Amino acid sequence: MNKEFQLTLDDVGSNGNQNIETLFALANGFLGVRASLPIAEEGCNAGSFVNGFYETSDITYGENAYGYAKQHQTMVKLFDFRTIELKINDCDKFTLSSRQMNLDMGKGVLQEKYVYTTSLNQEVQIEIESFASHKNRSVYAQKWRIMPLNFSGTIGVNKQAVHIQPNKVREDDPRKKESSAALQIDEEKVQTKNSGQILYYRFDDYQSEKLVEIGEEISFVQCYEMSKTPLSSIKIDYEVMKEAQQTIFQDFWSISDIELEGNVQLQKGIRFNLFHLFSSAGRDGKTNFSAKGLTGEGYEGHYFWDTEMYLLPFFIFTQPEIAKSLLQYRRNILPKAKERASELGYKGALFTWRTINGEETSAYYPAGTAQLHINADIAYAFELYEKVTGDTKFLSSAKDVLYETARFWLDYGFYSKRGFELHEVTGPDEYTALVNNNYYTNQMAKNNLYYAVKLANQYQEYVEEAVDWKKAADAMFVGYDEEKKLTKQDDSFLEKEKWHFEQTPKEKYPLLLHYHPMKIYKYQVLKQADVLLAHMLFPRGVEQEKRDFDYYEPLTTHDSSLSKAIYGVVASRIGYEKKAYDFFKESAIMDLEDTHENANHGIHAANMGGCWLGLIYGFAGLRVEGEEIVFHNHLPKEFTSLKFRYLHKGNVQEVVLTQDEKTNGDFGSS
Amino acid sequence: MNKEFQLTLDDVGSNGNQNIETLFALANGFLGVRASLPIAEEGCNAGSFVNGFYETSDITYGENAYGYAKQHQTMVKLFDFRTIELKINDCDKFTLSSRQMNLDMGKGVLQEKYVYTTSLNQEVQIEIESFASHKNRSVYAQKWRIMPLNFSGTIGVNKQAVHIQPNKVREDDPRKKESSAALQIDEEKVQTKNSGQILYYRFDDYQSEKLVEIGEEISFVQCYEMSKTPLSSIKIDYEVMKEAQQTIFQDFWSISDIELEGNVQLQKGIRFNLFHLFSSAGRDGKTNFSAKGLTGEGYEGHYFWDTEMYLLPFFIFTQPEIAKSLLQYRRNILPKAKERASELGYKGALFTWRTINGEETSAYYPAGTAQLHINADIAYAFELYEKVTGDTKFLSSAKDVLYETARFWLDYGFYSKRGFELHEVTGPDEYTALVNNNYYTNQMAKNNLYYAVKLANQYQEYVEEAVDWKKAADAMFVGYDEEKKLTKQDDSFLEKEKWHFEQTPKEKYPLLLHYHPMKIYKYQVLKQADVLLAHMLFPRGVEQEKRDFDYYEPLTTHDSSLSKAIYGVVASRIGYEKKAYDFFKESAIMDLEDTHENANHGIHAANMGGCWLGLIYGFAGLRVEGEEIVFHNHLPKEFTSLKFRYLHKGNVQEVVLTQDEKTNGDFGSS
């Protein structure tokens, strides 16, 4: 693999320890390990995670009410596998002199080299090679080499997994919520206190004390194993495992790689994003893809709609097996979604806004439970999966998800003179809450209902119910301002005062940290794409989309990391090439350059998927039209070519866009 | 005083211990004592309170955000002054055989008689006379008589104030929130831990052990003194104090009594309500009137808009000195209101929704801080006070309240094509939240602005600002549905689905305990009068009011105790005599009959004021028109006459309504 697959410290914008821990983190969908220093410094945040391994605690409300989420679910920060205790003669204090990191994204292996210095100027070099195995997802493996550079002496080594003690209090920034849980640690397993989850483990500890001459080294291999089921007794062979890792990553890139010619940094950003998408996605049908993947504690390891609307397109088009397992997770939590709908007084199923175990854990319903669109987002992803993969077999096993969500919409909405309306919802834009007829929500619910009707007719079941679903979908109200010729984000949005952007200094962003929600909700101001996200999915024609873009984009703070990628896609399609380029660029390098200044809490997974959307839905103009996958060359002039592959009903397709071939027409590919 | 001023156990609907503790509680605006049993039984909730004596604790949110209220403020449950330790020979277990209570509301004195029986059938009678002194508000005084009825023996008595230890956890029902705080108790004072409040005390303890023959008795007097400032050393004379109490209550009734002929129970209900209004109102300008007065811990002893809109009319018209001190409280917390407006990003002052110390302590902003109307409610009360009392001197010292609230409205609202709009507010109806242009709020804000303009012109200050206030008031948008000829509660209310009352069984009320707020907000359903409350204050003509009444009343659950009284007033005015009678009746006996089944947490003070409104604003049709007080006889046929007095600019006026004199015309009285 060439240099473009190597990530080094030169490639990242911020060299803060926690930032590096996130960006160079290794994960395999089951476990994730932050790339912390071998000898801890202040301000480090070492640790590892297991997907879906969480602790619960009661949510305390200042004022409680019926139907509020009852328990926090918090992904547990597990062991620090990377800390080493070192002693040179009698000295155990070291200063970091140099650090080199090389993440070989092509092979899924991290190489590190450190030089540490004692107060007596003794220099010791540490080399670590490590990977989170994709062959055996229980395994995180390390190979260490420790060598004196300018002395001979006794080197003592103690390398053990260290349990991270809970030491963080809940933070006020709702995006962070770092926390770790007290674990009961037994000989072969750890157990959470409240949620009763069990994790089996087997760790290779290493201890030695040796006289080492210059030119000699201490080397050892460690395989850390963790599993939700008892571990097999088979001994891990590091080299065999590493070989398999490379093969798996080669296979991954052979389908999922994207070659964008014209900007080396952005090319690296793309691969960095795809690498993390592949690394953190749950593979077992019981776990999903948390907002920060397995790279950090932000958002407590919860799964959101991010999976369906930002991540799944990438997986559906290039790694359908992963897509299937992520959708299988939703099928598995359907019973919880039915309970939740019932608790709220509705029929069918309502998937919860943020969750690990399927129960609602959003403690602020206006920007949580009220985002009912998650139901339709999930339905949309099932439909896209079926259309692109042709995997009707899986759909036939999961079609209850579509029926139950359709039932919910039918019961939740009501008929008025204007049509079928959905009230008191929050759309994707979280700076506008509890509104009537959010455009995105209504369009998505309509699609949800139609898809359920299609399945019901196809499988000849619930046919009578399906008549009502179709009637509601046909009658679904969508708001439009005839005078302004604008799509209405919701019934009241265009009636509001516009946010006073000119009176808002830079340091007051993101608004959510500096203004009361009541104030934010009062104005025309968006956190993220809302109407335009709907347009990305359900095109309304270039002229309409332009008008809406021109209206809504300037009102958008992009305070959410889920925003720019979507505006970029639409900008491509409506011919706003400069904006498309700019938004794509920011999406491609968001974490690499730490533009949101919080990559220390973990990657922005949804944006990474958004980066793929920017390239494929945006620059390449991909649309699914019936049985066809259709493209349109929107490649910005900054790039000479774009080359990518995707799978359509099991067949690999390759698309190459160049400036020469740039025309105005669509071109199909199936 | 005649029998109608005596409240006995026969008069109350529920004989539960906690209910009796509330109904027979004694208070003097400074301190309040629940009428608990002398020998505690399970399920009792004894205790005393001092107005505005509170403890703070951090509010924990499941998900915190900028500008949320930071601290709970909780009125502290203080000493149990009523428990006695009794020993007859060696026996200290007693069974209550009989209980008589007689609250002489005419004199402000409670008489009680208990017979307790030992397992050996020894009967002992306990008589207690007690009052919360209105002459010296530091004093709660008791006189005890203990006599053996059927034996002679040694009677041991230990009568001491007992500190109530914190033993309650926060409850989920937002209306309760009982709690008590750990106190640091020194020799002469107690101190709260977090809020650092100090209360000085001097208690007469009593201990004795005597041989008592049948026909003899043990008697003693106890004066419990508490004060926020060091106590004077003057010894309290029980009889002198009791004499003064009777004079003060005579004076009170001479102005504030209302004689309603035709229904003895309702007559008693009225006096019961007026008695508690007089008892619990703060008198020192630094305290106010909590939602449950000084009779219970419900709503944590917080002050709400209840004072201004439900209680102050009674005080303004009959006890203007008390009215002034309640308004003085608002003037005193104005600096906190300015800080709050600033924190939320607005100019001027925003009074907090619920508070003791002036800081916001509502932990649920959609039904708390968002009820901005409290600003205008306060302004309205200041205006009414000035109009009725003519006390311009007080107003001139408090007019900043009006200017600062006007400044807030001007900054909060904005001009649109439709006029001056107020968005993202919650009106009085808490089953509809975060809406645009709540009719009540806009009307009240308009009035607030106009009154500020009037004062500014009168005092020739802020005259330029006042031009903008007037402009906004003139342009204030008020919503009206031209087709339905209905006043719109807010921009979207009439667009909503109607609540499915037919599918809501009785046990699902109050809705707030059985449905998620998101669900409740979605429907046309009211907790309490909203548009109709505005109509009570700003009449819109009988025809319009009838249409609005016919539309909104059937959508109202009256889950709030603040609802029925208001509908009753409007029903009177629009000639719905039967409804006026029914609503008034429920208002008159709400606590006496415990119709809301929670009088155990304390009286419903606002409803007690609402009872006065039902009589005077409703049956007697009182309106203030310029310099005149105007009446209209709406006396329901169930009553033969209604007689009451009020003060207009210092002069006592008497009004008598009878069925004979019932005409359609207004009659003045000034």
TrEMBL record, chains A, B:
Active-site residues, record numbering mapped to chain: E430 (proton donor)
Glycoside hydrolase family 65 N-terminal domain segment(s): 17-201
SUPFAM superfamilies xref list: Galactose mutarotase-like, Six-hairpin glycosidases
Gene3D superfamilies in the cross-refs: 1.50.10.10, Glycoside hydrolase, family 65, N-terminal domain, Maltose phosphorylase, domain 3
Family per similarity comment: Belongs to the glycosyl hydrolase 65 family.
Keywords from the UniProt entry: Glycosyltransferase, Transferase
Domain Glycoside hydrolase family 65 central catalytic, residue spans: 271-612
Binding site for substrate: W305, D306, K527, Q528
Annotated GO biological process: carbohydrate metabolic process
Name of the protein: Alpha,alpha-trehalose phosphorylase
Pfam families: Glyco_hydro_65m, Glyco_hydro_65N
Any one Gene Ontology molecular-function term assigned to this protein's record: hydrolase activity, hydrolyzing O-glycosyl compounds
Keyword Transferase: yes
